[in-house]
Amino acid sequence: MYWSTPLRNVSVRSLHVSVICTILLFSVVAIFSSPPQVHAAGETVNVWLTTGDLSTHLAPQANLTFGNGGGGGNVITVNENQTYQQMDGFGASFTDSSAWLVYNKMSGSQRSTLMNSLFSSTSGIGLDFLRQPIGASDLTPPAPTVGEYSYDDMPAGQTDPSLTHFSINHDTAYIIPVLKQALQINPSIKIMGTPWSPPGWMKSSGSMEGGTLNSSAYSAYANYFAKYVQAYQAQGLPIYAITPQNEPLYVPNGYPGMSFPAADETNFIKNNLGPTFAQDGITTKILGYDHNWDQPGYPDTILGDSTASSYTAGTAWHCYGGTVDAQTTVHNSFPNKDTWETECSGGTWENSNGFPNTMSLLIGVVRNWGKSVVRWGMVLDPNGQPNLGTGAACSTCRGVVSVDQNSGNVTYNGDYYGLGQASKFVAPGAYHIDSSAGNNGIQDVAFKNPDGSKVLVAYNSASSSQSFNVQWGGENFAYTLPAGAAATFKWSGTQAGGGSGAPIGKTIWLNATNGNYVSARIDQSNNPLNASATQVQAWEEFDVIDAGNGLIALKSHANGDYVSTRIDQSNNPLDASATQVQAWEEFTWLPQSDGTIALQAQANGDYVSARTDQNNTPLEAMVTQIQGWEKFTWGQV
Questions:
Q1: 559 lies in the same domain as 582
Q2: Burial grade of 488 (CB within 10 A; 0-12, 13-18, 19 or more)
Q3: 318 lies in the same domain as 264
Q4: Among 49, 228, 508, 520, which residue's Cβ finds the most Cβ atoms within 10 Å?
Q5: Do both 305 and 415 map to the same domain?
Q6: Interacting residues of 194 by C-beta distance below 8 A, sequence separation 6+
Q7: Could you tell me which of 317, 528, 338, 411 has the C-alpha nearest to residue 117?
Q8: What is the per-residue pLDDT across 452-488, written as a single tens digit (0 to 9) for each?
């Protein structure tokens, strides 16, 4: 070894000591000067509370602070690294009755206060989704004040297939002014439109009540929607989405309605409405169905038709029949289509102030892929008026707020505060993020806003106070929620630890590029995994297990064993035969920009593939880059 002149007389031993000391010095400095690798606890959590009796409503509470470590007992785990649907908003319908009340029965100052309370996120609850009837609904003032109407009414026996008489003049009196005021307060509002009936001359009944759409009127009805969208746009009111028919499986007695079976709506969308919108350059979304959770076969029919599906953004749902998990059932069948809940009325039948039902609706809808949570009438008087007052027209409905027709005074109902627990804090474009369901009556749902802030809404449906811990990465806080109360927690910062981005604790399916499901085989337990199953049964269901260090394992429901890339060599096919989780059973869950995920094997660093040569060869982990066969769509069972 050659030493430069100044060092020739320095012993090698002395030099070694000097170098070692220097290294130690820099190491000590680095330890104390570099950023800590463990995320520091201490983020502030803001809290707002509404009690079941509404004596406390959206009231700020004492701030909380995250602490390091985990909590025991009833734990709600929030994982911001796992995102689901992006939210469109929360709201109700400014029906003809609602707009008529606000515009005609309130003073200018009263109306201004109410509108800010509804639509401002600072002085109110920031509602940002409106589902507007296209023409009359049952929540329309009775004749002779208003009565049933469409945008192209004709004398009995006359038709207008060219829509020469189309006009939204009725709406310009008070509906459009109210909508413009709302949009001025909150420019983020999304408006969707839904008809209770086409003009009577288009129908077999010759009336806005009952009947079906005449086959000769399909083209005119598609143009009717186009003219509606264009007329509202000309008023400065863009229409975000429409549905072809409100409650197509229910023909009401005494107010506008129409039977529109699934096959007929499918044909209308694919042959008339979709092509008309495309031809006219209209980008308004088309949502199918718009009825109850108890008939998921209806949206299946629309989305199962490739042409109709190409024009359809997803499904609109109501709450009056079935259970909310129907939304997930349809989502799992069509994971690339979205979900909206568009009507769920409050009323005297609830035997409450509306708060419990609104909270359960909000949490259940969002946890089942809903992009919107929508009550029914925005404003009614305390007696459920005005409405058409005929037949089945709802006389027991409750508005989100009640307005006294004599004084203009406002009562803010439980529906208002229930929506506000989310709408005031969840910004448009926020993502629903993963949170574990609480126990002992605690229900919850979590969001991540575009600015990175997190929002957790928790509701105690139990009859006694309940305590729980909120776990976020490696941090937690504790809270006790009174019986019947809801709290919203909001905080900033970045999650550290405890989050792989995968749906930990959930049972999922995986779907490959060929449209088939990943299966652990239905004939015997240890055959290789492949993508050949056309439906989800036990062998296509996998529990997502937290393997630590940001990794996951997949446990087959059918045999209880773990998916493995094999412990003997790297390129053997995947199977479900391992009884414990080691390196070959650990995977990195990698969300892709198109909503799919990829799985990277921890043992060899390669990606799980359904093969690029043919459909049904076994899955293996030997591909070094992510392409089509290494991407999987997924959904919860």
A1: yes
A2: buried
A3: yes
A4: 520
A5: yes
A6: 131, 132, 133, 134, 242, 243, 245, 246, 290, 316, 342
A7: 411
A8: 999 999 999 999 999 999 999 889 999 999 999 999 9
Which residues are part of the catalytic machinery? 247, 343
What band does 36 get if pLDDT is binned at 50, 70 and 90? very low
- Give pLDDT tens digits for 219-232: 999 999 999 999 99
Q: Are residues 541 and 615 in the same domain?
A: yes
The DSSP letter of residue 189 is -
Only one residue has tokens 């574990």, namely 436
User: How many CB atoms are located within 10 Å of the residue 554 CB?
Assistant: 28
Structural domain count of the chain: 3
Q: Which amino acid is at 325?
A: D
Identify the CA nearest to 407 among candidates 105, 135, 103, 627: 105
| Residue at 10 is within a domain | no
**Whole-angstrom distance, CA of residue 515 vs CA of residue 117:** 48
Q: Domain range for residue 282?
A: 89-156+169-426
* Cα-Cα end-to-end distance for the chain: 68
Phi first, then psi: give them for residue 380, nearest 5 degrees: -140, 170
Distances (CA, A) of 145 to 99, 209, 408: 13, 19, 19
Tell me whether residue 74 is exposed, middle or buried, using C-beta atoms within 10 angstroms of its C-beta: 0 to 12, 13 to 18, 19 or more: middle
The answer as to whether 147 is a domain residue is yes
Same domain, 442 and 347: no
Spatial strand order of the sheet with 129-133 comes to 338-343, 314-318, 285-292, 241-242, 190-194, 129-133, 89-93, 372-377
DSSP state, 586? -
User: Does residue 496 lie in a domain region?
Assistant: no
CATH of the domain at 542: 2.80.10.50
